[in-house]
Amino acid sequence: MEQLSSVNNKLIKDLAKLKQKKYREDTGLYLIEGFHLIEEAFKANLNFVDLLGTEQALNQVAEDYQVDLDGKNIYLINSAIAHHLSSTKNSQNIFMVLKIAQPKQYPFNFGKWVLLDNVSDPGNAGTIIRTADAAGFDGVVLSPNSVDIYNPKTQRAMQGSQFHINIINADLVEVINALNDNAIPVYSSMLDKTAKQLQEFAKVAQLGLVIGNEAHGVSDEIAAICDEKLYIPIKGQAESLNAAVAAGIIIYHFA
Amino acid sequence: MEQLSSVNNKLIKDLAKLKQKKYREDTGLYLIEGFHLIEEAFKANLNFVDLLGTEQALNQVAEDYQVDLDGKNIYLINSAIAHHLSSTKNSQNIFMVLKIAQPKQYPFNFGKWVLLDNVSDPGNAGTIIRTADAAGFDGVVLSPNSVDIYNPKTQRAMQGSQFHINIINADLVEVINALNDNAIPVYSSMLDKTAKQLQEFAKVAQLGLVIGNEAHGVSDEIAAICDEKLYIPIKGQAESLNAAVAAGIIIYHFA
């Protein structure tokens, strides 16, 4: 274990930059924080690149997960450094650096998938991934213009679901074609009422479910190649549902 | 229309204090901001106490809602004042002060109700109220220890649903007893798996649906007097669902 005492330390400066997508892409690394996420990483048997924490926080992790604090790439930091690295107001003073390790390709020949088409809010994307995990889906595909899942807000909203299910960045047209080739139906969730009501849809064993942008919905190009279009009926006077809530209702309908 | 040019103006200082619950209770007033919420207030035919905006914002409201800008209690403000009053990073430069006008009592002899038992996150409470509105529920009851709906974050998450459905602060034991007296079943949503799975529940015409605290669920006292306990099965490895998503899935099951 090495002790770091300044926010100007080279490693700390580099790690703080991982809050930005550019630096995550340059280095292939990302930063997670807080006991729950780090617990999930240990449960998933991931090898960390670096582990950093205040004395109390490191001791807790060492006890809970049999980490040898004399090992390499473990850093004792002070609360000023923790505050500097954290993306939350109240840091839990424990951080882990991990390698970005998403599969580049996937056959899409089986299972239940959520496809995110230009979902732009980091919290929404993370919450939808968490819901897909809870509902027992196999994975989530993000279109190239969707939010980056290594964004700290997305990480926080996922609550560790990135360690449980497949998360893949891919062109949605290619994914939908692959699902279709394997006779897996693909439904597009729509904002407009010309689509079919959700409750008319029977449960299916395998499925692609497209969730669109918060404001604009699924793009015309994608909606056009889906087998069915569905929507959640609004029965009261609200204009719409919160995007993550709407996705949750649809995902659980098919759980 | 009167022009105000300083954040130290007495009225502006008073209105900025309305972000705090204490001052809302002292004055019986609350502040809303942004075009969507103010549009909803006009649609609901509410009389505003004050209307404040920059020239451009006031002109837009005047055009859309036939507001006479020469009328009383309309104030032209600059963007420094707008920034001071706003609870968001990017203010839309339009504000309205309204009277708090919740019914003190309600007979609870009819309809579908969501009962919030110690829901503490302002965004969650607002999102749940918005979902209840979208699902055609008659109203939402908040226990005394739940969040204050006039909190700016709750207002934002509700998206105007407070103008569409009944929102009542009341003791939940009394409300549940009243619902029971009227033969309306009351279900409690639980975090534990000893309860009955959601999909086993048939749709019902009238209902009380208790949603509990984000971390601790429904209190024992309340759960004990409910007719049934229900939970959403977690099929994957996620430990739980986001609280507002979970409430949304349950509410729409009974929509």
From TrEMBL, chains A, B:
Q: What is the name listed in the Swiss-Prot or TrEMBL entry for this protein?
A: RNA methyltransferase
The residues covered by the RNA 2-O ribose methyltransferase substrate binding domain are: 31-104
Name the protein family. Answer: Belongs to the class IV-like SAM-binding methyltransferase superfamily. RNA methyltransferase TrmH family.
Might you name a Gene Ontology BP term for this protein? Answer: methylation
Q: Does the keyword Coiled coil apply?
A: no
User: A single Gene Ontology molecular function, please?
Assistant: methyltransferase activity
Q: Which UniProt keywords apply?
A: Methyltransferase, Transferase
Family annotation (PANTHER family): RRNA METHYLTRANSFERASE 3, RRNA METHYLTRANSFERASE 3, MITOCHONDRIAL
Pfam families in UniProt:
MRM3-like_sub_bind (PF22435), SpoU_methylase (PF00588)
Entry annotated with the keyword Methyltransferase: yes
